[in-house]
Each structure stands twice: as C-alpha cells, then as structure tokens.
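Data availability (excerpt). The following record was deposited with the supplementary files.
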Amino acid sequence: MRKKKIMIVDDDVYIGDMLQELLYKNNYDVSRAYSGSEALYALKDDRPDLVLLDLMLPGLSGEELLSRISDIPVIVVSAKVDIDGKVDLLTAGAVDYVTKPFDTKELLARIGVHLRNTPCGGDKIVFDEIVIDCSAYTVSVSDVPIKLTRTEYAILRTLAEDAGKVFSKNAIMAEIETLTPDCEESSLRTHIGNLRNKLKSVNGKDYIEAVWGIGYKLKS
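Predicted structure:
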C-alpha cells in the first residue's frame, strides 16, 4: 500500500528536520518547502496527502498560500496563538491548528485523524485481485466491476488501507463514519456479510476474515 505523503512548509530548518524525522519514523513519506512561493511551485507537480503549514514564511505568507491550496487538508503549525486568527484560518480552509511548541503525539494523532477522514484523491488501493479507485469510488475484483453500497465501499476501503490489520467493530465504525454516517453498529455485521459475498462471487476467494472475539481483516 502506498505510504501517505506529507509536505512540511516551514523555513525553520530545525523544526522541519524534527518533523521530517518524526514522520519518517511513523511510516510517512515527506516533502519539504522552505517558503510559501517554493511550496506553491512544488504543489503543481507534487500532490501530498496533507500539508503542515507554518504561517511566518518568507515570500508568500502561510495565509496567502492557504488560500491557494485546494483539495488537500492543511494543518497550520504556528507560534501565533490569537484566537480570532485561528478561527479565520479554519474558516479559510485549514482543517486544524496546532500551536508551537507542540506535543509530537498530539500532532501525529491529529494528522492520523485528518488523513483518515480524507478521500484518497486519484489514488488506487490494490490488494490481491481487488482494486479500489478512490476518486471514482469503484471496486473491481479480477477486473470485474463490483457494485457496492456506500457502506460496503467504506468498510472495504477501511480494511484495505491497512490490509492485514484486525479492526474491531468500534474501530470500523469510527473509520467509516465520515463516508457513511447513517450506518449503525447493529447492522455492521450484515453489511460486512454482504460485502464478503460480493467479493467472493467473482473468483471464489473469501477476502474478509472474521477474527473471533476481535473483529475483521482482509486476507489474500
């Protein structure tokens, strides 16, 4: 599975290096920009999954850069603590605001939440013979299109994004709530059963394994 890429936009080399090392250790790909203008140019060809944006940048300011970023979640990481300023930035399109100095565990948690709740753009997730097109919201097995409900699609994408991991029912519900807010835990087992049967109908493979007493995972 493709690693998520995060762009760090910060002219402070020390903080940028620290963030880069932290993200590498947590299995993210990283790109860097040291000014707003450099970041804007890089974003023409480099589409990260998330941007960590400082505000006090040379050239194009963080606020100006934010107004020119679309379809990419931006977490502002800044020493500015003005409440009205935070509100303005969130209104302008930032998904979160983290004040320097920050706790690394909290920052990683916020990054994880916003990456989880963001569609995966034009990328495809491939697991065995399953291909999930995240921009078209389509699924195929062995090149055969499979028609899934919104809830079934959300469950499959959750399992496929971390294939091999066992998800509890609560974890699945937490992961899919933004894509399918109407799903209830009482019906989750039925949705998973229907998804399992649809995937199996193509080539006879049972891709979803129920782990007794824990939850579900994808298997090849």
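Summary of structural features: The chain has a mean pLDDT of 86.
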